[in-house]
Amino acid sequence: MAVLVTATLGVTTGAASAHPAPEPHAAVVTLTYDASRAPQWADAIAQGAKNWNAAEHNVRLAPASSAGSADFVYVATTGWPQTTLGPIVPGGRTGQVQLGQEAVDEGYDMTRVAAHETGHILGLPDDYTGPCSELMSGHGPGTSCTNAKPDTAEAAQVDRNYADTTAAAPAQHRRTVIDAAPALAPAP
C-alpha cells in the first residue's frame, strides 16, 4: 500500500505488450529528466526510460540538455524510493524521483525500481497486489521479480494521461508516493 503525502514539489523490467495507438493529438509530449544526482543508477534509469519509450505513443522521456531545464530529476538516496505523483508536464512544477538504496540493499532490481518510480512521474499509482508482469506492482511480487517494463494496461493509461496535455496540466498532482518498505508498509 502506498502512503500518499501532500508535498510541495521542488523540495522534495517481463516484456511490454504492444497496445493500439491512441487517438492522435497535436504532438508527442517530451519530458526531460536529469539523472546527474543519481550516477550509480545511470544504467537503470536509461533502461527504464527506454522501456517506457518503447511502450508509449503520447509521451517520450529524454535526458535534459542541462540540469536546470529538466521536467523531473532523479536523486539517489539512502532510504526507500519515493516519487512525485504525476502526470508531470513540461513547464509545470518539477517532479522528483528518489531512488532509495534501501530497496536495492533488500534485493530489489535497480532497473525495476527506476522504471516503477518513473511510472509514478507519468501518473500511475501503486498496485502492490498485482503480479510481476505489472510494473506498478512494485515490491508486491518480491525480490525475485525483475520485470522493468510496463504492461499493456499501464502503457495505455499513460497514453491516456498524455493524450491531451491541456487536460494533464491542471491534473498535475502535488503528492509524493512513498514506496514503503514491505516490513514498514502500513497495515490496510
From TrEMBL:
Protein name: Extracellular small neutral protease
Keyword rRNA processing in record: no
Cofactor(s) the record lists: Zn(2+)
Reaction equation(s) it catalyzes: Hydrolyzes proteins with a preference for Tyr or Phe in the P1' position. Has no action on amino-acid p-nitroanilides
Keywords: Disulfide bond, Hydrolase, Metal-binding, Metalloprotease, Protease, Secreted, Zinc
MF term (GO), any: metallopeptidase activity
Entry-linked InterPro entries: MetalloPept_cat_dom_sf, Peptidase_M7
Family: Belongs to the peptidase M7 family.
Pfam families for this protein: Peptidase_M7
Subcellular location: Secreted
SUPFAM superfamilies referenced in this protein's UniProt entry, alphabetically: Metalloproteases ('zincins'), catalytic domain
UniProt source species: Streptomyces tremellae
Enzyme class per UniProt: hydrolase
Presence of the UniProt keyword Secreted in the record: yes
EC number: 3.4.24.77
